[in-house]
Design goal:
The radius of gyration is 22 Å and the shape is elongated. The protein has one domain. It has 2 helices and 4 strands. The model has no long low-confidence stretch (mean pLDDT 89). With 87 residues, the protein is mainly alpha-helical.
Length: 87
């Protein structure tokens, strides 16, 4: 569960990291308040939310079993644990 959450957090932070990298590369002051105006932060938040939304859609679409498959949970047969399978 932690991996999907961390991957979404990293995807959300990518635009901010890219902008910080841009500031460093263009030799602007990274921590100065003039380098982070409100309209830039708003654009970065919008881009971050869009990236996160697309990543969530792709995660939902490409993970899990194909349509029409049935999941049989793990169960006991003859005293042995049989793992869950998709049929």
């Amino acid at each position: 569960m932690i991996r999907p959450v961390l991957s979404e957090v990293v995807i959300f932070l990518l635009p901010f990291a890219a902008y910080a990298l841009f500031l460093v590369a263009s030799r602007y002051q990274l921590l100065a308040t003039t380098s982070w105006p409100v309209h830039v932060i708003g654009g970065l938040v919008g881009a971050a939310l869009a990236l996160t939304f697309v990543a969530l859609l792709l995660f939902v679409h490409f993970s899990g079993a194909p349509p029409g498959h049935t999941y049989i949970p793990a169960h006991m047969e003859n005293g042995k644990l049989v793992p869950g399978v998709e049929k």
